Amino acid sequence: MSKNYFKIIRAGINTTFQDLGRENLYHIGIPFSGAMDNRNYLLSNKLVKNDLNSPVIEFAYQGPLLKYHGDKINIAITGNVKFRLKKNHKVFEGNCYETYLLEDEDEIDLLSTNKSVYGYLAIGAEIDLEFQWKSCSINTKAKIGSNDGKKIVNGQEIQIKKISKDFSKKKLNYLNSKIEKIRVIKGTNYDYFSDKGKKIFFEKEFIVSKLSDRMGMRLEGPKIENIVDTNIKSEGILKGVIQIPADGNPIIMLSDHGTIGGYPKIAVVISADYDKLVQLMPGSKIKFQEVELSSAETLFKLYDLETQNLISQI
Q1: pLDDT per position as a tens digit, 46-67
Q2: Of 214, 254, 274, 287, which is most buried by a Cβ count within 10 Å?
């Protein structure tokens, strides 16, 4: 029996294993984690005929350079990613949302994401990973998940346990669209902020800061005035919550967020806009738009239906 594995030649900037994450662990301080862009994660797995909750490699900005050793295997890349494949000493550009067959000593070079943050590499196989609380998702801040809770590093080998035998060519015509405004519902501490602060929040532009990662997205812009208290008794928070600390600059909680927080919450990003939110690069401009809870629920149903329709096309 031959040994099948990927050798990491270059790890990239923030390369981790992710799946759909962990459920029902907030009471012990463990967030969901999981893939940042859920739609692109699901599409990558469907392209290579994996179970939709299978582990994939998530990368940010610059992805890894991998060399494959073993029997032929299917892979797919999703997101807005520039990448190259090297086969028989010949290099060619690859296309996202399309499967490619790798053979022994082929290479895949995930050069960069294009005006976005996250990309996904799905492998048509069962990867040899350890699971923690039924998930392989890596949370580097908490050091939990597969790979000892750490990023993938140079020289590492990714072992393959079982290769899928479905090598059929798959392709999806899909374009990642941008969003003009991030839609939100009011937060539980909305009335902590002055009328001027609320007006600024919904009418002015904010800039995505470089101080953003899988845990949170910091924004810069006009200060949002708090007229009650800049600190509150720590309480539970969720993905998408927008907190306003004492400096008046919003922080949006993302997939690896802490499960409690003591800053007042002005709003929460609706689930339908989360995938597009996380793909906004530092320097991107954000404007917020208020919607009612009932509208947020409808928008999520529509977004989920669109995702399922895309999956069914593969």
Answers
A1: 999 999 999 999 999 999 999 9
A2: 214
Cβ atoms 56, 44 nearer than 8 A: yes
Give the integer Cα–Cα distance in Å for 224 and 165.
56
What ranges in the chain are assigned the alpha helix state H? 38-47, 195-203, 271-278, 293-312
Report yes or no: 247 and 197 within 8 Å, Cβ to Cβ.
no
Strands 265-269 and 251-253: unpaired
Contacts for 7 with CB less than 8 Å, ≥ 6 apart? 66, 67, 68, 69, 155, 156, 157
> C-alpha angle 205/211/217, rounded to 5°?
55
Residue 10 Cα to chain centre, angstroms: 20
Of residues 20, 18, 22, the one with CA closest to residue 32: 22
Would you say domain 182-312 falls under CATH 3.40.50.620? no
3-class DSSP assignment, residue 241 = strand
**Confidence label for 1 from pLDDT (cuts 50, 70 and 90):** very low
User: Can you give the C-alpha Rg of the chain in angstroms?
Assistant: 20
What gap in Å lies between CA 12 and CA 194, rounded to an integer?
43
Single-letter amino acid code for the residue at 87: K
d(CA 142, CA 126): 25
Q: What is this structure's pTM?
A: 0.96
